[in-house]
DNA sequence: CACCGCATGTAACGTGTTACATGATTCA
DNA sequence: TGAATCATGTAACACGTTACATGCGGTG
């Protein structure tokens, strides 16, 4: 994923790692806590694969920059990725796994877990609203936050279903 | 994630890799296409970490089995994981990234992408219904499928918003 | 005979992620 | 003086994922 985000940002023009990190933070409204080191590792790997090339640029009073740009192969790979619809229902999410195991194991207290998780979801919604309320939130970013909100709401509705279902199962003698 | 699923299954009693693979497939209603090899690699890694221990058991007419069981440390790690609410709004999903880049870049055709993706989502919903209709679907699994459905529906609603928003942005002179 | 099911595993690679090291400048 | 910003990078590990190798037994 990060590969493509970086390639996408480079498609707007050459940039160096430090700059890209800021661009990513910006694009994701600060919700992606990205370690700078990871940008460099990813960039290096992309360069190794011939998707990105770089050039050192000296500066006065500041360290050299390594300015990266997309190669033709990189552009092609990016467009291929962009065009292809996402085909992954994300069934391997932690939340799913946790609930399933809670049900299968009867270890711990499933209902208590659901309550805690619901609480967390509400906090997440509040967090998202707070982020959206910032003045400097670009329209694209607010779109993202909205999408995240939809997912959290889906989780909330699902948690309700889970709790109801647990009741049914227990009621049915199990 | 797989670590914990395997540990969870082992919490029900000792088992060997091949068996665990089937149990995972069962638990996820066949939606997790898990390579057997991965089970063994994960199991090995768990053993290295002292969370799982194994014992070879000979069989007539069949290869030896390596029967694994959870250690005390493993049980503890599992419970810790199970109890903790999930705190990850999954903003790094491919779908989000793709839409954001489509908007930022004006490369390709965002609207066409949205249409394709919507189509794919509808297919996914159909797939989920089909799985849910199976006779041998356990209640827990159908719960999972329902959850996945909620997420896909959230995606669909979000795609609508994205398309509308794109219209607004273009209309406003961009 | 060919294939499937049973059952194990390893080598290899891709990606995420962090902790750490370096060194200059600017500002309080 | 100490901290923050600018800017680079590496070593190391965890995890996902696949392709491949092995070998027996039963079924068509």
Explain what you see.
- 2 copies of one chain form a homodimer.
- Chain A has 174 residues and is mostly helical.
- Helices cover 66% and strands 8% of the residues of chain A.
- In chain A, strands 1-3-2 form a 3-stranded antiparallel β-sheet.
- In chain A, helix 2 packs across helix 3.
- The first copy, chain A, is elongated and about 70 Å long.
- The mean pLDDT of chain A is 91.
- The interface between A and B is large, with 65 and 65 residues.
- Chain B binds a DNA duplex (28 and 28 nucleotides) through helix 2 and helix 3.
As a percent range, the share of strand residues of chain A is 5-15%
- Strand order in the sheet with the most strands of chain A: 1-3-2
Shape of chain A from CA axes? elongated
Average pLDDT for all residues of chain A: 91
Specify Rg of chain A, calculated over alpha carbons. Answer: 22 Å
Question: For the terminal residues of chain A, how far apart are their CA atoms?
Answer: 43 Å
Largest sheet of chain A: 3 strands, antiparallel
Helix content of chain A: 55-70%
Count of DSSP helices of chain A?
A: 7
DSSP summary, beta strand count of chain A: 3
Oligomerization = homodimer
Q: Quick one: which chains have the greatest interface?
A: A-B, 65 and 65 residues
Going by helix content, strand content and strand pairing, the class of chain A is mainly alpha
């Amino acid at each position: 994923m990060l590969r493509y985000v970086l390639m996408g940002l480079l498609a707007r023009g050459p940039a160096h790692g430090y700059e890209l990190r800021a661009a990513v933070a910006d694009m994701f409204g600060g919700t992606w806590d990205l370690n700078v080191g990871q940008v460099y590792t990813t960039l290096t790997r992309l360069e190794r694969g011939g998707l990105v090339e770089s050039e050192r640029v000296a500066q006065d009073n500041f360290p050299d920059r390594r300015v990266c740009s997309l190669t033709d192969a990189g552009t092609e790979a990016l467009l291929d990725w962009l065009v292809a619809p996402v085909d992954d229902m994300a069934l391997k999410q932690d939340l799913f796994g946790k609930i399933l195991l809670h049900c299968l194991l009867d270890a711990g207290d499933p209902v208590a877990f659901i309550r805690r998780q619901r609480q967390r979801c509400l906090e997440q919604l509040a967090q998202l609203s707070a982020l959206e309320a910032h003045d400097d939130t670009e329209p694209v970013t607010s779109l993202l936050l909205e999408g995240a909100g939809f997912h959290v709401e889906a989780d909330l509705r699902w948690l309700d279903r889970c709790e109801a279902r647990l009741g049914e199962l227990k009621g049915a003698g199990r």
